[in-house]
Design brief:
194 residues, mainly beta, Porin, eight-stranded antiparallel barrel
Length: 194
């Protein structure tokens, strides 16, 4: 229910803010971008597994000093071996709200990102008899972010961002206790503006 309410809030906010696009200034832009950064795949005790997967962004500059940026990322792994098969997937949906400063070919932005990551796994092994399981959880994150991008051309930028996120780690369906974490997350961006 929380996930559906959160998605609905993002959609309504996106539609509401898109009305401002008709009254844009000359420098206002809409674009598409991709980032690479580190994400946590699993945390068991003190052992963390980190990996990269791309996240796609839709930067919408509502004025020369304000940006709204929805984001979505997806990761899926499946494999099989001698003893069975397994699969893992992560869906990440969020949004950034930023104030911007423009200095020549450089945009510097600062604000916050928030969103959720839905994680699920399933496995089926035949090693010591038949064993199978599946589970899912949803993590929520929020935190400040600061970044910048350099305009190589009118449309193409390269930039970076650092986030400092508080994460509410969701509960697996099997009833484990929920947890929270604080993390820094560096990103490298490529954006194309229309």
């Amino acid at each position: 229910m929380k996930k559906a309410s959160f998605i609905m809030l993002l959609v309504v906010t996106s539609l509401y803010l898109s009305n401002f696009l008709h009254a844009q200034e000359e420098r206002s832009r809409i674009g598409i971008g991709v980032s690479i950064g580190k994400e946590v795949l699993a945390a068991e005790g003190m052992q963390l597994t980190l990996f990269d997967f791309p996240t796609f962004y839709l930067p919408i500059s509502l004025s020369s000093n304000f940006r709204f940026e929805p984001e979505i990322g997806y990761y899926r792994y499946s494999g099989s071996g001698e003893y069975g098969k397994e699969s893992n997937s992560i869906l990440s949906i969020g949004c950034g709200i930023f104030f911007m400063t423009r200095k020549g070919k450089v945009d510097i932005y600062y604000g916050a990102r928030l969103g959720f990551m839905s994680t699920s796994y399933s496995y089926r092994y035949t090693w010591n008899g038949l064993e199978s399981d599946s589970d899912s959880k949803t993590d929520f994150y929020i935190g400040p972010a600061i970044g910048g991008e350099y305009f190589f051309t009118k449309h193409l930028t390269l930039g970076g961002e650092i986030q400092f996120n508080y994460i509410s780690i969701g509960q697996w369906d099997d009833g484990e206790d929920s947890e929270s974490a604080i993390r820094t997350k560096p990103l490298i961006f490529v954006r194309w503006y229309f």
